[in-house]
């Protein structure tokens, strides 16, 4: 498994696969073709289908500038390796092709170049939850200790930075009001939810704060603000919402949050390695489902759960999001994405509490549900995987036509 630094990426929303990944690919191609007079970028499959709403073209053009840039959209055409394909072509002043490169944005901001063998330093000796649990039980270690003993020495510093960016995204999002960009006319909600929670009765406070904190980050993401992929931009509000709530509610130390980020990251990394965190590949279960699982694991650890209870909470978080489709209206990372973050953080808290009530024994293992999620994702038709031609996106386009 790869480093947690490649799971938790710091960058600008609204989409890790549709803006962060393509921006990084554009930057690399521009640097390799600095003398080009024109760069043509062809977007394929899901990247083309939802690229306008996700601001993919704007993100690429902003990087390629001042070189002339043309974007070609091919939503019907899917390249071989992944639904999010891009082709970069550079031309000289006589319109001769100089260079060409195909790259895939495979989720969470990660890239895979055609013809390149996927290779990264494998940081972890075990890639299955059950192997890790066995190791931890034999050695007496926690999940977070397993992470720190395998990663580079500076992981704690990196996770401290991650926590700062998450915290700032919550705090920025809580004070902003107004309509989000994109044309849907969707107003931000975090500010009002926060205010109402402050005056509400005790029994509503936990849900109210969890909703407000996760909405704050999801709305910042929709507004192209700075967030952390956890595991993606679209699902970037779930884990910060949980950590910010527990940080305040339990008066936690920063080092406790960093350890929770390590455990949540391990859970996200297991899904990324053994299945996928890409909405275009497996639907929203890979994004929000994984985020819910990560937040559930973090909360269970912070509330004193055992290794088995943490694994149980992570399993619940993913299992009960199985089959969740990705059908963003107009391709914007707004509906259903923003509310979905709020509901996922609430589910994550329920998963943590449910697991803490148990002794940790349960029937379906985390590794099993990860395999099921992958298979389910591959069985879901592509119209429910970030193409915006099915589900809510289709219904909304019918409503628009009827007006
Ligand atoms: S529906 Fe889920 S997977 Fe699709 S863009 Fe929104 S958050 Fe991402």
Layout of secondary structure:
Blueprint: E1 10-12, H1 16-32, E2 38-44, H2 45-49, H3 56-64, E3 68-74, E4 85-91, E5 97-107, E6 110-113, H4 129-139, H5 143-150, H6 155-175, H7 190-199, H8 202-222, E7 226-228, H9 238-249, H10 254-274, H11 279-282, H12 288-302, H13 307-319, H14 337-357, H15 366-379, H16 391-402
Parallel strand pairs: 2-3
Antiparallel strand pairs: 1-7, 2-4, 4-5, 5-6
Bound molecules: iron/sulfur cluster (SF4).
Iron/sulfur cluster is lined by residues 234-235, 279, 284, 287-288, 326, 328, 333, 336-337, 340, 386.
Quick structural overview:
With 403 residues, the chain is an alpha+beta fold.
Give a description of the structure:
The radius of gyration is 21 Å and the shape is globular. α1 (16-32) runs parallel beside α3 (56-64) and α10 runs antiparallel to α12 (288-302). A five-stranded mixed β-sheet has the order 3-2-4-5-6. A two-stranded antiparallel ribbon has the order 1-7. The protein has two domains: 13-113, 60s Ribosomal Protein L30, Chain: A (2-Layer Sandwich), CATH 3.30.1330.90; 129-402, 2-methylcitrate dehydratase PrpD, CATH 1.10.4100. A hairpin with a 2-residue loop joins β5 (97-107) and β6. The chain has helices spanning 16-32, 45-49, 56-64, 129-139, 143-150, 155-175, 190-199, 202-222, 238-249, 254-274, 279-282, 288-302, 307-319, 337-357, 366-379, 391-402, and strands spanning 10-12, 38-44, 68-74, 85-91, 97-107, 110-113, 226-228. It contains 16 helices and seven strands. The longest helix is centred in the middle third of the chain and has 21 residues, at 155-175. It is α+β, with helices and mostly antiparallel strands. Iron/sulfur cluster binds next to α14. Residues 234-235, 279, 284, 287-288, 326, 328, 333, 336-337, 340, 386 line the site of iron/sulfur cluster.
């Amino acid at each position: 498994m790869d480093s947690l630094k490649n799971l938790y990426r710091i960058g600008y929303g609204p989409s890790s696969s549709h803006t962060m990944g393509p921006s990084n690919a554009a930057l690399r191609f521009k640097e390799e073709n600095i003398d080009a007079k024109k760069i043509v970028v062809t977007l394929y499959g899901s990247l083309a289908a939802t690229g306008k709403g996700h601001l993919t073209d704007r993100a690429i053009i902003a990087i390629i500038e001042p070189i002339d840039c043309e974007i070609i959209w091919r939503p019907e055409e899917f390249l071989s390796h992944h639904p999010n394909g891009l082709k970069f072509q550079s031309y000289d002043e006589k319109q001769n092709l100089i260079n060409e490169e195909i790259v895939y944005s495979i989720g969470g901001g990660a890239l895979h170049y055609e013809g390149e063998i996927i290779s990264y330093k494998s940081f972890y000796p075990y890639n299955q939850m059950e192997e890790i649990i066995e190791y931890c039980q034999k050695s007496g270690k926690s999940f977070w200790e397993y992470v720190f003993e395998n990663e580079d020495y500076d992981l704690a510093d990196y996770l401290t930075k991650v926590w700062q960016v998450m915290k700032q995204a919550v705090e920025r999002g809580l004070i902003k009001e107004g309509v989000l960009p994109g044309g849907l006319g969707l107003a931000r909600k975090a500010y009002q939810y926060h205010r109402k929670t402050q005056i509400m009765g005790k029994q509503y406070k936990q849900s109210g704060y969890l909703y407000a904190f996760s909405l704050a980050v999801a709305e910042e993401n929709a507004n192209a603000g700075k967030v952390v992929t956890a595991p993606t931009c679209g699902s970037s509000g779930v884990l910060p919402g949980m950590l910010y709530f527990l940080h305040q509610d339990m008066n936690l130390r920063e080092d406790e949050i960093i350890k929770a980020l390590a455990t949540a990251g391990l859970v996200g990394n297991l899904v990324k390695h053994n299945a996928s965190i890409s909405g275009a590949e497996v639907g929203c279960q890979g994004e929000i489902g994984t985020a819910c699982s990560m937040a559930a694991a973090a909360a269970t650890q912070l509330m004193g759960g055992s290794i088995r209870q943490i694994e149980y909470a992570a399993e619940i978080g993913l299992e009960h999001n199985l089959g969740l489709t990705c059908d963003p209206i107009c391709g914007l990372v707004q509906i259903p994405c923003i509310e979905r973050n709020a509901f996922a953080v609430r589910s994550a808290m329920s998963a943590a509490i449910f697991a803490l009530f148990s002794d940790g024994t349960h029937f379906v293992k985390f590794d099993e549900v990860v395999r099921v999620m992958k298979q389910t994702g591959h069985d879901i038709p592509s119209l429910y995987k970030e193409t915006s031609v099915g589900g809510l996106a289709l219904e909304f386009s019918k409503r628009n036509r009827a007006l």
